[in-house]
Amino acid sequence: MSWKKPTAGIILAAGISKRFGTPKQLVKIKGCYMIEHVIRASLSSRLRKVILVLGHRQKSILKALAENIKSFETNRLEILINSQYRQGMSSSVRAGLSSAKNAFGSVMFLLGDQPMVDSKLIDLMLKRFYKSDKNICAPVYKGKRGNPTIFSREYFNLLQSIEGDSGGKDIIIANPDDILKIETDSPACVYDIDTMDDLMAS
């Protein structure tokens, strides 16, 4: 469905990492910062633009990323600072959407603490989504819905009205018949890092 194109990726990485105890974005996994894995996967995909939304400890994160920022495809990467990050994930959803809504037919929300999601999954979701008449797309692993999630512009107004820390979950729950579920044999889409134990298991 051509009206769904192009798609912008919005990386939600403004949280305070309360349960983790230190900024998760700056934890290193396999030699790279966690947030780097998400950025690289997004930029290696067919997403037209990638919007990184930062908030808590943004200066430290930007300083760390500056070490490797030259290796990123920076003409496709936009960095936004969400000064209202303490209001929850919804504030980052609104911040990212405000930059993308006028130029894109859809957006994909990626989580900054899902370093195992790769460009293959992103591109598979985009390919299937474009061919479908559904307006929401989510990966599913062994019956469990995961992330990233795509929304067409049909839901932009609703997304801008959400509050708290739920992201787009309530919209997804309220519209089960409008969801394209992408079955995957990789647990990456349901695996995020919330605690040190999660990190040790990665």
Written description of the protein model:
The protein is globular. A hairpin with a 2-residue loop joins β2 and β3. The protein is α/β, with parallel strands linked by helices and 202 residues long. The termini are far apart. It has one domain: Alpha-Beta Complex (Spore Coat Polysaccharide Biosynthesis Protein SpsA, Chain A), CATH 3.90.550.10. The model is unreliable at 195-202 (pLDDT under 50). It has 7 helices and 10 strands.
Task: Explain briefly what this protein structure is.
With 202 residues, the chain is α/β, with parallel strands linked by helices. It contains 7 helices and 10 strands. The longest helix has 13 residues, at 119-131.
What is the residue-mean pLDDT, rounded to a whole number?
Answer: 87
- Tell me what the CATH architecture is: Alpha-Beta Complex
At CATH level 3, the topology is Spore Coat Polysaccharide Biosynthesis Protein SpsA, Chain A
Q: What is the 3D shape?
A: globular
Helix/strand structural class: alpha/beta
Please provide the ordered H/E string of secondary-structure elements. Answer: EEEHEHEHEHEEEHHEH
Number of helices: 7
Q: Approximately how much beta-strand content do the residues carry?
A: 15-25%
Supply the CATH superfamily name.
Spore Coat Polysaccharide Biosynthesis Protein SpsA, Chain A
Distance between the termini: 37 Å
CATH class placement = Alpha Beta
Please give the radius of gyration in angstroms: 16 Å
The residue fraction in helices comes out at: 25-40%
- Largest sheet composition: 8 strands, mixed
Unreliable runs, pLDDT <50, ≥5 residues?
195-202
Number of domains: 1
What is the count of β-strands?
10
